[in-house]
Design a protein that fits this description.
- With 233 residues, the chain is α+β, with helices and mostly antiparallel strands.
- The protein has four domains: 52 residues, no CATH class; 41 residues, no CATH class; 28 residues; 104 residues, no CATH class.
- Helix content is 41%, strand content 13%.
- It is built from ten helices and four strands; from the N terminus they run H-H-H-H-H-H-H-H-E-H-E-E-E-H.
- It has a four-stranded mixed sheet with strand order 1-2-3-4, with no helix packed on it.
- The termini are far apart.
- One of its GO terms (molecular function) is DNA binding.
- Keywords: DNA-binding.
- This is HTH CENPB-type domain-containing protein.
- It holds the Pfam family HTH_Tnp_Tc5.
Length: 233
C-alpha cells in the first residue's frame, strides 16, 4: 500500500465528526497534502484507475487478444496493425479507431430525423414512386498485399525463425466497384472499373468470370475510378 493509499484509508477509518487536517495526515504517511486533499474529495483519481477507465480493453481482453496474435503468428499469418485494431473493436464491441471530428459532429439523431423527414416530404410532394428511387455507392479497393505493410509478431517467433514468407504479388492494382440498389428491392447489374491507361480490358482480368452464372459490367479508366463517360453510361 502506498503512502497516499494508507492516508486515505486512515481518513476513511475516522468516525463521523472526528477532527483531522490533511496536513497532519499527509505528514504522518509521507505523502503530498494537496494530492491527498484532491483524492479524498473525489476531484482526482489514482493514475492506475484513470488509465484503466480510459482503456478500450481490460486485462483479460488484452490477454486474449495477445493469445490470438500469437496463434496467427504460429500459423505464418502475422497480423497488421489495422487487423489488430479490427480485432480489438470486435472484442470491445465498439470502434477502436474513434470517430473523426467531422463524423462525430455529424453523428446526431436529431439531424438524421430532420433529413429523413425532409426526404419523406419531398417524395410525397412530387409523388416519387419507389421504383424511381436508387442508392448508388462507389467503392475502391486494392488487389494484392502491399509489400511494405508492417506486421506484428513476437521477438521469440522472429528469433526462432517461425515466420513463414508471406506470399504476395507486390502489385497495387486499383479496382472500383459500383453497386446500385432500388427502393423496391431490385438492383442494377454491378460494374467493375479496372485501372488502365489504354482504356482496354485484359483477358486475365476475366479468367474467373462466368457469364452464364454471373452478371456484371467491366470497363477501365486511367485512374480506376468513374469518369464523366463511365458515370453517364
Amino acid at each position: 500500500m502506498t503512502g497516499i493509499e494508507a492516508a486515505l484509508a486512515a481518513i476513511e477509518s475516522l468516525s463521523l465528526g472526528d477532527d483531522f487536517t490533511y496536513a497532519n495526515i499527509a505528514a504522518k504517511y509521507d505523502c503530498d497534502r494537496s494530492t491527498l486533499s484532491r483524492r479524498h474529495r473525489g476531484l482526482t483519481r489514482a493514475r492506475a484507475t484513470a488509465l484503466a477507465n480510459g482503456r478500450l480493453l481490460n486485462n483479460t481482453q488484452e490477454s486474449e487478444l495477445v493469445k490470438y496474435i500469437h496463434t496467427l503468428v504460429s500459423r505464418g499469418l502475422p497480423p497488421s496493425k489495422p487487423m489488430i485494431r479490427n480485432f480489438a473493436s470486435q472484442i470491445a464491441q465498439k470502434d477502436a479507431s474513434g470517430l473523426g471530428r467531422n463524423r462525430f459532429k455529424a453523428d446526431s439523431a436529431f439531424k438524421y430525423r430532420l433529413y429523413f423527414e425532409l426526404l419523406k416530404r419531398k417524395i410525397e410532394q412530387y409523388n416519387v414512386d419507389h421504383r424511381h428511387i436508387y442508392n448508388m455507392d462507389e467503392k475502391g479497393f486494392l488487389i494484392g498485399v502491399l509489400s511494405k505493410m508492417k506486421r506484428v509478431f513476437s521477438k521469440s517467433a522472429f528469433e526462432e525463425g517461425k515466420l513463414r514468407h508471406i506470399i504476395q504479388d507486390g502489385n497495387r492494382e486499383w479496382i472500383t466497384t459500383i453497386a446500385c440498389i432500388c427502393a423496391d428491392g431490385t438492383s442494377l447489374t454491378p460494374a467493375l472499373i479496372y485501372q488502365a491507361q489504354s482504356g482496354a480490358i485484359q483477358d486475365t482480368w476475366l479468367q474467373d468470370f462466368n457469364p452464364e452464372q454471373h452478371r456484371a459490367f467491366f470497363t477501365s479508366s486511367p485512374s480506376g475510378w468513374t469518369s464523366h463517360d463511365i458515370g453517364l453510361a
